[in-house]
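2024-03-11 09:14:02 INFO receiving multi-entity request
2024-03-11 09:14:02 INFO entity count = two
2024-03-11 09:14:03 INFO echoing inputs for audit
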Amino acid sequence: NAGVTQTPKFRILKIGQSMTLQCAQDMNHNYMYWYRQDPGMGLKLIYYSVGAGITDKGEVPNGYNVSRSTTEDFPLRLELAAPSQTSVYFCASTQGGTGFSDTQYFGPGTRLTVL
Amino acid sequence: DQQVKQNSPSLSVQEGRISILNCDYTNSMFDYFLWYKKYPAEGPTFLISISSIKDKNEDGRFTVFLNKSAKHLSLHIVPSQPGDSAVYFCAASVAGNNRKLIWGLGTSLAVNP
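2024-03-11 09:21:47 INFO inference complete, emitting structure
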């Protein structure tokens, strides 16, 4: 049981480039989330999904897109990378549904630098 | 508008002593509270949680206390160990809000040998 996995661990992008951050979970969780964490700050929600085919914006969605075609995978797409997107990105998941707690389980993160 | 506040950015304690990390919140609709621990270059890991119907939850060396009237919760670590040195995040959620968590900014705990 690998839990939540993220690739790549590190990436340097040039301004204007695009990339996809991969996230997968093997816990059959319905809910998945993308966060970013800037230095000295808490986690800010970018996008989330409550199931395959259903996604919604979080607090800071601008400059990002997501898709959820399967329960397991929740990729985050950065279009036209900007220096303001330099951050550490975390993917998380939780079961959701009645009777389950809100505890989210996190991946190890992707450290992205945009130069 | 910070709904979950951790007003101490850092805390330093001696090994073996008690560590107390504090968290205040403003939204009275929060009904579930969690503490996460984060080491550098790793994702946050769940530590302990408490439902709003309780005022205390204990798990080994970790105890969380909830004071709803004061909108305050605290995490006690007894005894503190050097391996507890990490950033601790407080988070809260509202029932039915797609399990979204609202996060504090974190408190960096240093446990000195």
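2024-03-11 09:21:48 INFO post-check: Chain A has a mean pLDDT of 93.
2024-03-11 09:21:48 INFO post-check: Residues 18 and 74 of chain A are 17 Å apart (CA to CA).
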